[in-house]
Amino acid sequence: MNGIRVLVIGGSGFVGRYLMNYFSCHGTSTSGETGYIKLNITDTKSLNIILKEENPDLVINASGITNVDYCETHIDEAMKINGFAVENLANAAEDVGATSCHISTDYVYSGEGCKYTEEDETKPVNVYGKSKLLGEQLIRGRKNIILRISTPYGFNITKKKITFLEFIVSNLKSKKPVKIVDDQFTTPTFLNEIPIAIETLYDLKKTGIYNLGSTECLSRFEFAEIVSTVFRLNNELILKAKTSEIPFIAKRPKNCCMSNEKLKSITKIGDIKNNLEALSHSFLP
Ligand SMILES: NC(=O)c1ccc[n+]([C@@H]2O[C@H](COP(=O)([O-])OP(=O)(O)OC[C@H]3O[C@@H](n4cnc5c(N)ncnc54)[C@H](OP(=O)(O)O)[C@@H]3O)[C@@H](O)[C@H]2O)c1
């Protein structure tokens, strides 16, 4: 971004690290490991100091407790980090005149509908979704962008956790079968499209809620099949499972497919097969 100073909160995460690379900017991690500014988002004093020092034009919040089952048993922590701290960040950003972009989730919906628009009712079924919704609610209507994403797919530069795409590719490459549910539906978000959407919204001075996901609404099983086909792996190793067979702690919404029409009118959203083809060129031997 020409001359624009960006700061990524949660830069050490899967999405955050990709954003830092794209914008060639600074980012934070909780441990302050090399290459990152140390920050716990619940520490308002440090948050204000860092924002003043960095003086960004745009602050992107890609931080959060993202383990859905962990959130279910650590309610206060989830609400503090994914919820209340989001307001502190918005305040700190406003104090230095920065726009903030908060990354949220399709899990704010109940999962009983299909192709949710930004205006549709939010009714999360688990603590993670409730904590993310709290974060949204505390900053809505201010000078910021709320970008809801869903099952982001791409390769994780940080290697701290394995993404759904990496799980499928690595297991099938090793000829190991994988059990994937066919009764949870999503509109997966292409990792590469996240910074482009943010950049476009910022440049156009847009604020408010935007859903960023694929046009295709797929079950996780169907998504895994497309991955396997594009990466030229063995589809027969993908076994169908039901959500009820997997010992999840938190309830999972059934169908959180989001409509991308609002964002599609201002930024290009590619189709899953083409996006995966592009990724496969950097991954195949
Ligand atoms: N991945 C998904 O499936 C998905 C789907 C929808 C929405 N989202 C949203 O997208 C965002 C990015 O997700 P992700 O997959 O990139 O997450 P991730 O890989 O788990 O990374 C989470 C980031 O948050 C940071 N963090 C955790 N607790 C913090 C705290 N108390 N203070 C400051 N930073 C803290 C972590 O820092 P350390 O690692 O240094 O501790 C890390 O940088 C999240 O807001 C998530 O809710 C993700």
Structure explained in plain terms:
The protein has 285 residues and is of the alpha/beta class. The protein has one domain: Rossmann fold (3-Layer(aba) Sandwich), CATH 3.40.50. Helices cover 38% and strands 15% of the residues. The strands form three sheets. The chain has a seven-stranded parallel β-sheet, sandwiched between helices. A two-stranded parallel ribbon has the order 7-11. Strand 5, helix 5 and strand 6 form a beta-alpha-beta unit. Helix 2 runs parallel beside helix 4 and helix 4 runs parallel beside helix 5. The radius of gyration is 18 Å and the shape is globular. The relative contact order is 0.15. Bound molecules: NADP nicotinamide-adenine-dinucleotide phosphate. NADP nicotinamide-adenine-dinucleotide phosphate binds next to helix 1 and strand 5. The site of NADP nicotinamide-adenine-dinucleotide phosphate (NAP) has 27 residues, from helix 1 and strand 5.
Instruction: Give average pLDDT, whole number.
Output: 95
Number of helices: 10
Please report the total strand number as a whole number.
11
> What radius of gyration results from the CA coordinates?
18 Å
Integer count of domains: 1
| H-E string | EHEEHEHHEHEHEEHEEHEHH
Tell me the name of the CATH homologous superfamily. NAD(P)-binding Rossmann-like Domain
Kindly estimate the percentage of residues that lie in beta strands according to DSSP: 15-25%
Instruction: List bound small molecules.
Output: NADP nicotinamide-adenine-dinucleotide phosphate
Distance between the termini: 33 Å
CATH topology value: Rossmann fold
How are the strands of the biggest sheet laid out side by side?
3-2-1-4-5-6-9
The structural class is alpha/beta
Shape: globular
User: In CATH's first tier, which class applies?
Assistant: Alpha Beta
Low-confidence segments, given as residue ranges, are none
CATH architecture: 3-Layer(aba) Sandwich
